[in-house]
Amino acid sequence: MDDLLKFAVKCAKESGKIQREYYEQRFAIHYKGDINLVTDVDYLCQEKIIELIEKDFPDDEIISEEKTNCYDNKKNRWIVDPLDGTTNYAHGYPFFCTSIAYEKAGELVLGVVYNPIFDELFYSKKGEGAYLNGNRIKVSTVQALKAALLSTGFPYDLVTNKRNNIDHFIKFLYTAQAIRRDGSAALNLCYLACGRFDGFWELKLNPWDVAAGYLILLESGGKITSFQGEPFDIYRDDVAASNGLIHESILEVIRRDSAVSP
């Protein structure tokens, strides 16, 4: 593990310490929308990660979920979700993580995702494979959608916006073996990377939700595209991911919905 990856792991674990310290304790909860919440723990984790990055990499750009972000494509960039799965965290449901990726000259070169409750550290460096707690991981070998366990999520504006994934969800209920909806896109992608899930799709995601998981999935042998099957871009909000073997079947189900927007 080289110094850059070690540093990203350090940041994720420092964030994890904060999450463990406050887990199932009292902390302030704030609302960014009707059901979109943020906790003081999100802010504490973000402050710690930014503090560490600014000390060791003062010239790098940082984009993170709980800050105002500006994008300078000339800079190397840290892409941070200090607490992915905030709603789970606020309810004491142990499915959440810190997600950290590094983009160099417009290319993702490393990704780290850490769940402190299960002490599971997923990480990858471009071209060097994907790992869980030091062990190499690979996607599943499931070849039929009917035998596949999928995961997904729903946008916070699902009540007011028709582009809300409900139609897709219903169709996959009839075509896949089962679906899980557990509230962390970063962990969903990592679970796909290590073979716990066989496919994943979701709408209205942000770069910090998917950047680290995207690289971890690719390095584990998985496939990830837009809903239209185009090359994936972390700055685009629709994600279709799989073990590669059922990818076209997933896209076929998604395409049946005439309401899908590009």
Give a description of the structure.
The C terminus is likely disordered. It is globular, with a radius of gyration of 17 Å. It is 32% helix and 24% strand. The chain has 2 domains: 134 residues, Fructose-1,6-Bisphosphatase, Chain A, domain 1, CATH 3.30.540; 111 residues, D-Maltodextrin-Binding Protein, domain 2 (3-Layer(aba) Sandwich), CATH 3.40.190.80. A hairpin with a 2-residue loop joins strand 8 and strand 9. The chain is an alpha+beta fold and 262 residues long.
Topology:
Layout: H1 3-22, E1 29-31, E2 37-39, H2 40-56, E3 61-64, E4 77-84, H3 86-90, E5 97-104, E6 107-115, E7 120-125, E8 130-132, E9 135-136, E10 149-152, H4 166-175, E11 178-180, H5 185-193, E12 199-202, H6 207-219, E13 223-225, E14 239-242, H7 247-255
Parallel strand pairs: 3-4, 10-11, 10-12
Antiparallel strand pairs: 1-2, 4-5, 5-6, 6-7, 7-8, 8-9, 12-14, 13-14
Brief characterization of the structure:
The protein is of the alpha+beta class. Helix content is 32%, strand content 24%.
Properties at a glance:
262 residues, alpha+beta, Fructose-1,6-Bisphosphatase, Chain A, domain 1, D-Maltodextrin-Binding Protein, domain 2, seven-stranded mixed sheet, five-stranded mixed sheet, 7 helices, 14 strands, 32% helix, 24% strand, globular, disordered C terminus
| Fraction of residues in β-strands | 15-25%
Could you say which overall geometry the principal axes of the C-alpha atoms support?
globular
Question: What's the CATH architecture name of the largest domain?
Answer: 2-Layer Sandwich
CATH class of the largest domain: Alpha Beta
pLDDT averaged residue by residue: 91
Termini Cα gap: 39 Å
Q: What's the story with the biggest beta sheet?
A: 7 strands, mixed
What is the element string, with H for helices and E for strands?
A: HEEHEEHEEEEEEHEHEHEEH
